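Support request from a user on the community tier.

User writes: "When I paste my structure tokens into the form, the page sometimes reloads and wipes my input. The last time it worked, I copied everything first. Here is what I submitted, just in case something in the input itself triggers the reload:"
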């Protein structure tokens, strides 16, 4: 029930119509008797500064940040958590009595999802497609979990190299870069393949970041951070090759639990998520 004491938490991005975040957070607020509501805000790049100022002015409790604002929003915050500084991107904001602090929960959400599926990160060879905020977060977190090597593929090699430099400066794993022309031989040398691009996201569901004529016969975990649709064309390609898959819903839920804790101080047990677990299927 909304009343004069209800606090607002929101999502800032563009587009946001596809977001499942309200379906995750609003049931959790209700379950834990927290007088807050979660809403989505479609924000143009040129209005990002004003949107951040509105968080303070309206005393909004916090926010998630999604494509395409995870990097630029750092310019308008009062402080940034050390892990988010290394990553160079923010996906969660807490309004701490008028002081806006940025965090990043994407990488933690991804790693927890891989572990939940029964896989390891340590000593694995990983290829990341894309070089945006999610790619940065995932690369830093898997490096922090002792991955053997990371290969970052992107249309802009400079952006991929920027992430590689961050990893080299802070961790000891092997880092390589390349373009998105991924070959069968490339895939035969990795253990985990991760799509962090928006290719395949609704409404552009016909897009795929890889040559889908490639046929593989090996053990490979294929991950897509896109969660709408739940089964992207990229994941369909993986299943056609009998490869294990991990969809974006798993990462979304796990990173959301971290954000929920930042805003509320409440650690949610996965067993308490019966209201949102159906989003997996």
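"...and here is what came back when it finally went through:"
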């Amino acid at each position: 029930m909304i009343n004069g004491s209800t606090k607002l938490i929101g999502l800032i991005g563009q587009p946001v119509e596809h977001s499942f975040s309200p379906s995750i957070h609003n049931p959790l607020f209700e379950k834990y008797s927290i007088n807050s509501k979660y809403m989505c805000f479609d924000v143009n790049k040129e209005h990002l500064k004003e949107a951040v100022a509105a968080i303070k002015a309206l005393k909004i409790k916090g926010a998630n940040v999604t494509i395409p604002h995870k990097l630029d929003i750092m310019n308008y915050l009062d402080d940034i958590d050390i892990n988010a500084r290394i990553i160079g991107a923010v996906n969660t904001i807490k309004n701490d009595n008028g002081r806006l602090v940025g965090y990043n929960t994407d990488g933690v959400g991804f790693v927890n999802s891989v572990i939940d599926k029964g896989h390891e990160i340590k000593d694995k060879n990983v290829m990341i497609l894309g070089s945006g905020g999610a790619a940065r977060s995932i690369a830093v977190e898997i490096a922090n979990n002792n991955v053997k090597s990371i290969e970052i593929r992107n249309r802009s090699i400079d952006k991929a190299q920027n992430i590689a430099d961050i990893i080299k400066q802070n961790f000891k794993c092997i880092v390589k870069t390349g373009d998105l022309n991924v070959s069968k031989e490339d895939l035969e040398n990795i253990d985990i393949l991760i799509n962090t691009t928006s290719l395949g996201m609704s409404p552009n569901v016909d897009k795929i970041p890889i040559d889908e004529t490639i046929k593989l016969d090996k053990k490979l975990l294929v991950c897509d951070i896109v969660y709408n649709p739940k089964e992207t064309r990229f994941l369909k390609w993986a299943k056609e090759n009998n490869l294990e898959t991990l969809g974006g819903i798993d990462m979304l839920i796990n990173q959301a639990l971290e954000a929920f804790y930042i805003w509320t101080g409440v650690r949610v047990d996965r067993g308490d998520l019966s209201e949102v677990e159906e989003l997996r299927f």
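Agent notes: The reload is a front-end session timeout and is unrelated to the input. The radius of gyration is 18 Å. The mean pLDDT is 93. Escalated to web team.
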